[in-house]
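Please, structure for the following, as tokens.
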Amino acid sequence: MQHNRGQWQSTAGFILAAAGSAIGLGNIWRFPYVAGTNGGAAFVFLYLVCVLLICLPYLFCELAMGRHTKKNPVGAVLALRGKSPWTLVGALGVLTGVCILSYYGVIAGWAFGYIFKSFLAPALSLGEFSANSMVSVPLFALFILFTILVVVRGVEKGIEKAARVLMPMLLVLMLLLIVRGLTLPGAWKGVEFLIKPDFSVVTTATVLAALGQAFFSLSLGMGAMITYGSYLPKSANLQTSGTYVALFDTGIALLAGFMIFPALFALGGNPSSGPPLIFEVLPTVFAQMTLGSVVAAVFFVLLSIAALTSTVSLLEVPVSYFVDDRKWSRKKSVWVVGAAAFALGLPAALEPSSESLRSISLMGATGYLSVMDLIWGNISLAVGAMLLCIFTGWVWGYLKAGAELQEGGGMSEGTVKIWGVFIRFICPLFIFLVLLSLFPFGSRLLAAIGLG
């Protein structure tokens, strides 16, 4: 069956698709509010350090596993280790993809709906908008359908083709909004907020928040990059390709900051508004601009594009498993997984209009959507990434993985040795600290030893 698998037509196509997978709501919705609540520029600096020292080495590990085995996360672990408990790590990645897609599609549906809301009902709050299940459920269904229609066409005709159109479009729209924001009087305060660090605000919690954000924004820990790496030819340079993906992703997150904060400061918004920043605070900022409805609509088109390039990779991970290991057709796999994600996400779409769904709580997360995000978007990703680090460094062996990274004119032997130290010791330790900080007892423990 291996000859039937898709393959990227070009390295550029892979980089755009993989960057698209990484660029999503994490960069444009989550990054600005996490940066805003963690002191701006100092957080941004720590975020960049985390991408370079922890996320990039780990990204190479997923790409090497994928290309070496030409498999999805489950198939890759099976190919390298045979039947063993390690297969569960691959299975966790596949399951995580479906579960994140289920609630991510709901938020993506809101973003898509906001394009029209900007013109039809600009004064409507997110609470009122999302509580109308006759609006939020069809929007969620529509977004899952968009995702299905891209993935069902396959790697070259679907994912790569869509990325080649959507990614440049995303960039152009962002630059337009940045220029618009910078022309507002008082915008420079927002620029300073992002580029003049005040390290006195930094605590260990800030470092962990930066590492957590870097990790989640790069789509690491669920095997998306194993799956995308499996479609790469041996001639591709994994070190260069992986570095470009990380650069693209980080660049978009920074651009999101420059798109949001200058306008926010110029028009008196609060940078530490938290999660409502994009859906609640920004529309009021846009409303004060000339042609505010148009600016708002452009922004939410952009947010929808970023979300779609991510939902595509979230769907592709489980689909590749059913195509490779269960020998299903791509069409059947896409529709079955898409339907499962929709069923699983339905409570998240209905949550704003249901008191019982809003009252679900776990470890400080309240509401079905927040609990799902805590379990799958935080804990599961960190567990998966930590175990895949250990698997690559110690079970498969960093030298064998390094040999894959050297193919196609990639890493030098010296770099492989340094990478081996990171993948075996440094990355698992830091990912473990992020994981620990997610649990109440863990954050208390970190605080007790001076790391909280």
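Residues 368-406 form the longest helix (39 residues). The chain has 19 helices and two strands.
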